[in-house]
Specification:
Layout: H1 3-20, H2 44-60, H3 76-98
Length: about 110
Amino acid sequence: MNTKILLTASLIAVFTIGMSASSVAFAQYMGNVGSEGQTGSYTLEEALEIQTRRIAAAEANPSSGSGTPYLDAGGVVGAAVIAGAVFGGIAGAFFIRGRSGKYAAMGRG
């Protein structure tokens, strides 16, 4: 296939996807918006009261934490260790296989 046609088609595809993927950001309201545009009854004082209750509940139960198990196998560190072991094993296999074979340099192993 002609490389100019392929390059042109790929650029058109990238620009078309980029133009169509633009989205609209909406402001966040304190409550539900009514049909006439009025905001809901969720006021700033109510929001502060709810946040105060959340902080009090977190201080009352310090063992609950944020809910993110960092050292668990399903957590952040556990997933990083597992992924490192898998990809490290694959890389090690490629390094070991690369030292032998018909394309290995003579005299290097």
